[in-house]
Fold this sequence. Notes:
The structure holds two protein chains of two kinds.
Chain A lengths: L2 H34 L6 H11 L4 H24 L7 H39 L2 H7 L4 H39 L4 H11 L2 H27 L4 H31 L1
Chain B lengths: L1 E10 L2 E11 L4 E6 L5 H8 L7 E6 L2 E2 L5 H8 L2 E4 L11 H12 L4 H14 L15 H14 L4 E5 L7 H18 L2 E5 L3 H7 L2 E6 L2 E6 L1 H5 L4 H8 L10
Bound molecules: adenosine-5'-triphosphate and magnesium ion (MG).
Amino acid sequence: MNGPTATVERIGRIVLENVEELGRILLLFLSALSWMVRPPLKLHHILKQMEFVGVKSIFVVVLTGTFTGMVMALQGYHGFRMFAAESLVGSTVALGMTRELGPVLTSLMVTARAGSAMAAELGTMRVTEQIDALAVMAVNPVKHLIVPRLIAGVLMVPLLTVVSDFMGILGGYFVGVHILNINSGAFMKNIFKYVTLGDIYNGLAKAACFGLLMSLIGCYKGFNTRGGAEGVGRATTEAVVLASISILVSDYILTAIMF
Amino acid sequence: MIQLVDIHKSFGKQKVLDGLNLTVEEGKTTVIIGRSGGGKSVLLKHIIGLIRPDRGQVLVDGEDITLLNDKDLNEVRKKFGMLFQEAALFDSMNVAENVAFPLREHTKMSNEEIMDIVRNRLNAVGLSDVEEKMPSELSGGMRKRVGLARALAMQPQIILFDEPTTGLDPVMTEAINQLIIETQRAFNLTCVVISHDIQSVFEIGHRVAMLYEGRIIEYGTPEEVRASRNPVMVQFLAGSIEGPIQIL
Lengths: 259, 248
Ligand SMILES: Nc1ncnc2c1ncn2[C@@H]1O[C@H](COP(=O)(O)OP(=O)(O)OP(=O)(O)O)[C@@H](O)[C@H]1O
Ligand SMILES: [Mg+2]
């Protein structure tokens, strides 16, 4: 076979493979859901994952949130100064952070930190037969390994987003008021005038979706690892790439629905 | 009783099991021998439902486990203990927690009771003062013995051993063989053991099964198997290069 037929065939195969993978991810999610509602859930497993995903990500999230807010203030200032509307910098930073940058940047950072680690850890457990050992001991691996990670992802990414939002606004305030000399009262007044609770809630709802995507894809890639150390490396990379893409694409879709 | 009926299993183009039939008698030790890479571990994983056959039945006490869903399979697995070829210890837990794991998951015993059992099982496999070590800090043979202690922790009715003595020194090999024999006798267990060590095979086996080219080609008591005139069997037991078993 040659020329156009071969190309069409190749494209078709790629599409099929991706659809198939999507289906398998969905099946894993459904299976995790069904185990989630079957007691007993081990609280300490969930707490351990929440600590890993949440507590240990605080530092990077604080750092990214703060600097994002600061740079937004800086960029916004130069734009708004042309219209003598410097006091809008505060509300721009706050809206940008709560609606968009808080959830997206937080979940991307958590993907890089925790999603990759989930894929690597489960991948190693897979290739060294530890997941089989769990199954043999009549402990369902989906329930034991995946359910706590999904719960941790869904709960902790929104909480981290709150931290990120807050730090971003704080960073914006610092740059706007203390460095660029915007009037502090006007800065704050505009934030309260333009940012609604709805903006914050929608941002957090997005964050919960991203947290789910991050942990689901990390777990899926780790769980289906094949072939030794190289396979674990491949699974980790694929998890980070696929989770990041999914977060960005679903961000567009969710934004189109919400706002 | 465990029955494997007409099991076929391929990985891609490679046919590993090809119409295999085997009955594992209750309360007896069945040893499976065969060439390296011949599919012994794959066979063992079929018995406990880790691998599903392409075709065929795996009957555990009359129930075909290839048809069960995750939840029912879980129930059947509670009857089993298994030692993996590479031990498969949880590397996030220390030795004591590895052995305690099935007890913590499936019993309501207190921590002291569990730790008593853990020490007892570790002593039985010739290990002491390793409770606090992590699996990565153990030698290969020690890891295998911790895996053995973990498989014995729950006192299951059926135990599957994938090469329990490979990598152990002669004295320890003998000690583990004795442990398998004594435990099997004491609780009238059904054991399936994969072994490459011909001496151990005849020492612990009530039945010996030879896996060759995806089927059981020879099955019987150790005496029967030793007296076999099947050229494959003769070559395998003699460990000779000449014969029907091709090196390449
Ligand atoms: N998950 C798998 N995917 C693909 N091929 C596999 C898989 N598991 C086993 N195989 C193949 O099946 C064959 C039998 O493997 P198996 O591990 O059962 O051998 P074995 O008899 O236990 O050998 P050894 O005595 O060396 O442990 C091998 O050729 C192996 O490559
Ligand atoms: Mg093997």
